[in-house]
Amino acid sequence: MHVAHVVVTAAMVMCGLGALIAIYGPAPQLLGVSFYLGLCALIAAMIIALTLALMLLVRAARKQARPFLKRTWLGLANGVVALMFLAWFAAYAS
Description:
mainly alpha
């Protein structure tokens, strides 16, 4: 696991919690900041996941994908979560 994967995961969780606190809690001023920083974390997660997916394809062609996948599964999972959030946002929130 790379440090960038953990940092992006923590940023996405903190921004999600900030948005939930802003929507349902006593601090509505957190909404704008949470969505803006969350969007930055979302873009970072998608760029990292796209890079990892391309590298995984190259490693799969060389039959070296399994050890690479064990080290980078969190980065790929972040990309999947980011895509699911974007799909939800496009369908329901916009």
